[in-house]
Amino acid sequence: MIASASREFQAGALALAPLLIGVAPFGMIYGALALSQGLSPAAALAMSSILFAGSAQFLFCQLLGAGAPATVTVAEVGLLNLRHALYSAALAPRVAHLPRRWKLALAYLLTDEAYAVIARRETAHDTGPHRHWFYLGAGLALWGGWQLSTAGGVLLGARLPADWPLDFALPLTFIAIVVPLIRNRTMLAVAAVSGIVALLAAGLPFKLGLLVAALAGMAVGWRLAGGVR
Amino acid sequence: MSVWLTMALCGVATFIIRLSFIAAEGKVAFPPGFRRVLPFIPVATLTALVIPELLMPRGVLWLAWDNARLMAGVAAIAIAATTRSVLWTLVGGFVVLGVWPS
């Protein structure tokens, strides 16, 4: 039986829904953080549409608060979001037949969470002619949840209790994404090098240690996987 | 440079990264060395972000039992490895953070 476009859309949105439990506190704390670092409510809300990348929005606010130059901010946000190239490469063959407007829309909606849902969909269920509606459903569900939760954070702002460690949702979400990816020694080496370099370089200004550590980890992985061969 | 311009540049960079392979499929051949680094990007960037949050929650290395964030992070890693569930990792991490004496 061929799943209809609306069925596919619903299935995508439903598959993403559980992840919103992690996204909601994350969005709220972003909204509050953005205001505390000097962004206007309008800019804080607009960033959720313009960037639509939680961790990068956090980083942007932290760098804004630290007075980092724009070039540093763009470079670090770009590096942090470089992982989306991997998701783009994974999705590319599945959307190659679609019209350009679909490719643009699905690229815009491509996030860690949407990719996780799409990647986990069993191949047997991902062959229908309307499967792009599944991707759209997952992407839009996250987009809506993200906009709502960041708006909640902007509205509540400073009224969120300061002793609630909501910011911890960020590392916890990333632990949940990264740990299942560490399936072999090469990945373990990449993680070890990134983590150690991140600690050693933590003293660098404007969180540049993040950039150095991520590049060191990538270089180790690239070398262990065969380098320029 | 204004905050809005910086934000716009970050947005454009992010969108181009997300569109890269989707737009280039069948048109541009990326060098194999570039493709080889792709699988390592999420682990490299996200680990670099997470580890200081656990081991340096106050800006200096804090390797001790009363570092609740470290303990919650270790618990979250164990939960993520066994359940592979974002939800349970978040719940478990927050529970340990909440109950750990510090």
Count of helices of chain A?
Answer: 12
* Global structural class of chain B: mainly alpha
Major β-sheet profile of chain B: none
| Termini separation of chain A | 45 Å
> What is the CA-CA span between the terminal residues of chain B?
43 Å
- The helix fraction of chain B, in percent, is over 70%
Shape of chain B: elongated
Main interface: chain pair and counts: A-B, 88 and 64 residues
What Rg of chain B, in angstroms, do the CA atoms define?
Answer: 19 Å
Structural class by secondary-structure content of chain A: mainly alpha
Topology order of chain B in helix (H) and strand (E) letters? HHHHH
The overall strand count of chain A is: 0
DSSP strand count of chain B: 0
Rg value of chain A: 19 Å
Form type of chain A: globular
Number of domain units of chain B: 2
- Uncertain regions spanning at least 5 consecutive residues of chain B: none
**Strand portion of chain B, in percent?**
under 5%
Based on the structure, what is the oligomeric state of the protein chains? heterodimer
Taking all residues together, what is the mean pLDDT of chain B?
Answer: 93
Provide structural commentary.
The complex is a heterodimer of chains A (229) and B (102). The N and C termini of chain A lie far apart (45 Å). The mean pLDDT of chain A is 91. The longest helix of chain A is centred in the middle third of the chain and has 26 residues, at 131-156. Chain A is built from 12 helices and no strands. Chain A folds into 2 domains: 5-159, no CATH class; 182-224, no CATH class. By secondary structure, chain A is an all-alpha fold. Helix content of chain A is 71%, strand content 0%. Chain B is mainly alpha-helical and 102 residues long. Chain B has helices at 3-24, 32-37, 41-55, 68-83, 86-99. The longest helix of chain B is centred in the first third of the chain and has 22 residues, at 3-24. Chains A and B meet through helix 3, helix 4, helix 5, helix 6 and helix 7 of A and helix 1, helix 2, helix 3, helix 4 and helix 5 of B.
